[in-house]
Design a protein that fits this description.
By secondary structure, this protein is an alpha+beta fold. It has a single domain, classed as Aminopeptidase (3-Layer(aba) Sandwich), CATH 3.40.630.30. The chain has five helices and seven strands. The chain has a seven-stranded mixed sheet with strand order 1-2-3-4-5-7-6.
Length: 180
């Protein structure tokens, strides 16, 4: 797909509904074979996600940053959430908690730009390394390898009544990875 024009900016509480829409659409598109159908169809709703995002963006999680990618007309097409690494025993100082782009806008550069912006902010804050944990069965995980991350480990997480295998990617030196 062709590259499109978009901007990266910090999220605000007013963005909760739009982020919730991207969240739900991206999950339903990415995980139909990985997560239970009833979770994706019924329990994952835009209304629930909007409530959660509104709470989250009102500062309920002060140690994380949320950036959004907007299209030329201002529509939110993707988001990234990042902060200090939450995983015990990890050598990474920072962590990407979530990165999603609306299915209709994938493969156009928004994810790469969101990741680049997050990494730049983390470098500026003195963070030297970064981790992200992704579902092992998600074919989009290779995006991180294309952007310089290396597999740093594996894990298993419980979610929606299932045990899911994950892959942990690392950027060991934020000053040397991702072509910006």
């Amino acid at each position: 797909m062709a590259s499109m024009t978009f901007s990266i900016r910090p999220a605000t509480a007013a963005d909760a509904r739009a982020i919730a829409g991207v969240h739900v659409d991206a999950w339903r598109n990415a995980y139909p074979t990985l997560l239970p159908d009833d979770y994706l169809a019924e329990r994952l709703s835009e209304d629930r996600q909007q409530t959660a995002w509104r709470h989250r963006l009102h500062g309920a999680r002060p140690n994380e940053t949320v950036l959004v990618a907007t299209s030329g007309n201002g529509t939110i097409i993707g988001y990234i959430v990042f902060g200090r690494c939450r995983r015990r025993g990890m050598t990474a100082m920072g962590e990407i908690y979530e990165l999603y782009v609306a299915p209709d806008h994938q493969d156009q550069g928004a994810g790469r730009h969101l990741l680049t912006a997050a990494k730049a902010r983390m470098r500026k804050a003195g963070t030297g390394s970064l981790a992200i944990e992704v579902l092992a069965g998600n074919p989009a995980r290779f995006f991180y390898e294309r952007l310089g991350a290396a597999i740093g480990g594996t894990a298993t997480q419980s979610f929606a009544g299932q045990r899911l295998d994950t892959v942990i990617y690392l950027w060991r030196d934020l000053g040397l990875s991702v072509d910006e």
